[in-house]
Structure formats: C-alpha cells, structure tokens
C-alpha cells in the first residue's frame, strides 16, 4: 500500500527515519507542500543520506536538495550577519527566540531548519535603543510589516528581518523571569542569551496560539524536539522538561489552553511523543479539552484538509489563549 501524506511527512521529518519503500508515495503533492511547510531541507537530507534506497523519484530528490543547499547558505548568511551586528554589544540582555535558536540547539545540522527571520526579546526600555544600535549595521525600521506575534519593532537590512519584542507574557514579573532564567549564548557575543528549556517550550506554544496555529509544520517539529528534550543534540535543551515548572508558568501566563492544544497537536502528528506529552499536558476541564480538540487539534492534524470554516482562525486564537 502506498504511503499517505501523513506517513511520508512523519518519515521525512524524523531525525532517525525508518527505512521504507516510498516509490508510490504522493510525491506530486508532497514536494511543493514540504517546501511551503519548511520541511524540505530535512526531507532532502533524509532522502539523500538516510533513505538512499527508498525509490523516491529523482526529480523530487533534486528539487528538495536544491532547497537544502539554498537554506544552508541563507541560514549561515543570516546568523553570521546577526553575530556581526551584536557581537560588540556589552552589558545588555538580548534573548534569541525561535528559529534562530532552534536551528542550532534542536537540529543535528543548522541547514535542517530554515531561519526565515530572527526574533529577539529585550527589556521594553531597551527596544528603541537597541534598534538605534543596529543602525550601524544598516538595519532600519520597517513599519509596513504587521506582525501577528506582536513584535514592538520590525527591522531589516534588506537581507534579514529582525522582530524585537519588549515583552512576551504581559506581566512584568513573568517577563523578567524569562531573562533571569535565560543562559548565555556566547557565540553571538556577551549580551545574547537563550531561554531555559521550559520557557522555550511554553513561549513556542504561546506563539503558535497567538498565530491561531496557522504556522508551517516545521514549527511542530521544533515543538516535538522541545517536548522530547532535544535527544539528537546533547546541548542546552537536552534534558527532561520539568513538568511542574512548566505547569506553574503556563497557569501564571494564562497559557494553559495554548499549551494543551500545542501538545495535543504534536502528539497527534508524532506518536513517539505520547509519553512525554502525557507528563506535560496541563489539566483542563473536559468541555474545554473537547473544544480545543475539535476546533484546533483535529483540523490542524488533518494534513489533507484544504479549507477552513469562516471565523475558524479567530476561534482558535480565542480558545488557545
């Protein structure tokens, strides 16, 4: 029997893909879909180096490999450019969020995870001063971009987009806790930091919820690795998540619904996370769980679904917090 789109997705999004015959998989649909979902670089590596005998069509392998090579070059350019811009900054707290951090901390190779933009968290009083500091590296404000994730400032040097957040939670004490628990990310200079594992997981779930869970599936691969404790890396996130700390912060942030939906979705897409999700899932009432499953988890886990009902995104955002 030919592999379904879901089965093909799971195999090619794995860091340890099972050896299977993929000759009759839905390649015509998968190729464009994987590129749009940010999955193409990881899929290309798996097909070239892990699944060389999978019988995938040559045209698919060539196309995905070109995306892999382009992503590798683009990621290196953006991250080196960012390092040059901030390496001399001292005495500040700049936390690198999302893809810019995850590409190195969760993935076996930086080319596996496209870095479309860089998101940074700073103390709110420092946002405008930092934007001014970046002018020396040719970054300018771009007021035409409306960010659904509520960045305070958006900057670009025409090659790299920077989203600056002066807060993530909204409660000053909780936002300060993100800085207090963060750890140095010295490769980018003395002022750059990364979130603690529990904060990284919860912030990622919060961002997905704020986007109404309308996000490329590579962000669910990020979440899978955070939930599992980054077993492929042996780095800063390579440990078990502290469930008690995660639950306390989710409650304090008002993010329990977003966390529940994100964890339920990652479990649906990646069955290997079942045990970890069971330990990390927050306790919600049965009616709320059923609504989240029906309006968020089931629709987003259906990879064959091509339409949404009117108002669905607003409902997702409301229910997910």
Report what the structure shows:
- This protein is α/β, with parallel strands linked by helices.
- The protein has a domain at 197-321.
- 51% of the residues lie in helices and 7% in strands.
- The protein has helices spanning 5-12, 27-36, 40-50, 58-86, 98-105, 127-133, 172-181, 197-210, 218-228, 243-253, 256-269, 274-280, 286-301, 312-320, and strands at residues 94-97, 118-121, 140-141, 153-156, 161-165, 183-184, 192-194.
- It has a seven-stranded mixed β-sheet, with helices on both faces.
- Helix 8 runs antiparallel to helix 9, helix 8 (197-210) crosses helix 11 (256-269) and helix 9 packs across helix 11.
- The protein is globular.
- The model has no long low-confidence stretch (mean pLDDT 93).
Task: Outline the fold blueprint.
Elements: H1 5-12, H2 27-36, H3 40-50, H4 58-86, E1 94-97, H5 98-105, E2 118-121, H6 127-133, E3 140-141, E4 153-156, E5 161-165, H7 172-181, E6 183-184, E7 192-194, H8 197-210, H9 218-228, H10 243-253, H11 256-269, H12 274-280, H13 286-301, H14 312-320
Parallel strand pairs: 1-7, 2-5
Antiparallel strand pairs: 1-2, 3-4, 4-5, 6-7
Strand content: 5-15%
Instruction: Give the mean pLDDT.
Output: 93
Distance between the termini: 41 Å
Continuous helix count: 14
Low-confidence stretches: none
The succession of helices and strands, N to C, reads HHHHEHEHEEEHEEHHHHHHH
Shape: globular
- Major beta-sheet overview: 7 strands, mixed
Give the helix level as a range of percent: 40-55%
Side by side, the strands of the main sheet go 3-4-5-2-1-7-6
Overall SS class: alpha/beta
Kindly provide the radius of gyration, computed on alpha-carbon positions and rounded to a whole number of angstroms: 20 Å
Strand element count? 7
């Amino acid at each position: 029997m030919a592999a379904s789109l879901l089965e093909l997705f799971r195999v090619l999004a794995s860091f340890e893909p099972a050896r299977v015959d993929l000759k009759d998989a839905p390649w015509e649909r998968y190729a464009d879909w994987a590129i749009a979902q940010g999955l193409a670089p990881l899929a290309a590596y798996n097909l070239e180096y892990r699944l060389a005998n999978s019988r995938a069509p040559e045209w698919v392998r060539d196309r995905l490999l070109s995306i892999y090579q382009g992503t590798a070059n683009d990621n290196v350019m953006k991250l080196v450019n960012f390092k040059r811009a901030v390496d001399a900054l001292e005495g500040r707290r700049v936390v690198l969020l999302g893809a810019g951090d995850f590409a190195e901390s969760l993935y076996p190779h930086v080319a596996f995870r496209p870095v479309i933009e860089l998101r940074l968290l700073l103390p709110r009083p420092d946002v405008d001063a930092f934007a001014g500091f970046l002018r020396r590296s040719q970054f300018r404000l771009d007021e035409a971009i409306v960010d659904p994730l509520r960045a305070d400032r958006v900057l670009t040097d025409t090659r790299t987009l920077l989203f600056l957040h002066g807060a993530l939670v909204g409660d000053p004490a909780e936002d300060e806790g993100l800085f207090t628990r963060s750890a140095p990310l010295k490769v980018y200079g003395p002022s750059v930091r990364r979130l603690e594992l529990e904060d990284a997981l919860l912030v990622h779930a919060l961002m997905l919820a704020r986007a109404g869970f309308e996000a490329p599936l590579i962000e669910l691969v990020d979440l899978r690795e955070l939930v599992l404790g980054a077993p492929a890396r042996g780095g800063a996130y390579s440990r078990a998540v502290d469930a008690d700390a995660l639950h306390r912060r989710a409650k304090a942030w008002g993010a329990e619904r977003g966390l529940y939906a994100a964890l339920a979705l990652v479990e649906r897409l990646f069955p290997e996370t079942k045990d970890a999700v069971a330990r990390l899932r927050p306790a919600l009432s049965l009616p709320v769980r059923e609504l989240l499953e029906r309006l968020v988890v089931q629709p987003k886990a259906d990879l064959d679904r091509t339409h949404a009902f009117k108002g669905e995104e607003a409902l997702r955002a409301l229910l997910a917090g």
